[in-house]
Amino acid sequence: MKTMTCIQLGGACDKKFHAETFDEIAEMSKQHGTEMFHAKDAAHLEAMNKMREMMKTPGAMQEWFEGKRKAFDSLAED
Question: What is the mean pLDDT of residues 51-76?
Fold first, then answer.
């Protein structure tokens, strides 16, 4: 089991996600982002806008995602 925060995953808060795989933690982060979007949380909306801007550059999102995967893989087990 490994732990990453919303901020470590590109978000805007210290919420912790615990998972066995990066795919699991990415899904948790996505669900949290959806909740924050519906709640109209300003800090998370700003983080989402930064992600949208990044997606305008070809390959940038994939590169960012792989960086987060490597960060997860390098974490020690909880």
Answer: 92
Query: pLDDT value at position 10?
Result: 93
Q: Which residues contact 28 (CB under 8 A, 6 or more apart)?
A: 17, 19
Q: State the total domains in the chain.
A: 1
Q: Which pLDDT belongs to residue 55?
A: 85
Nearest residue to 22 (alpha-carbon basis) of 42, 2, 46, 43: 2
Own/partner contacts of 71-76, CB < 8 Å, gap of 24 or more, are 71/4, 71/8, 72/2, 72/4, 72/22, 72/25, 73/22, 75/2, 75/3, 75/4, 76/2
Task: Please compute the mean of the pLDDT values over residues 23-35 and round it to a whole number.
Answer: 96
Q: Which domain holds residue 54?
A: 2-74
Helical (H) or strand (E) element with 40: none
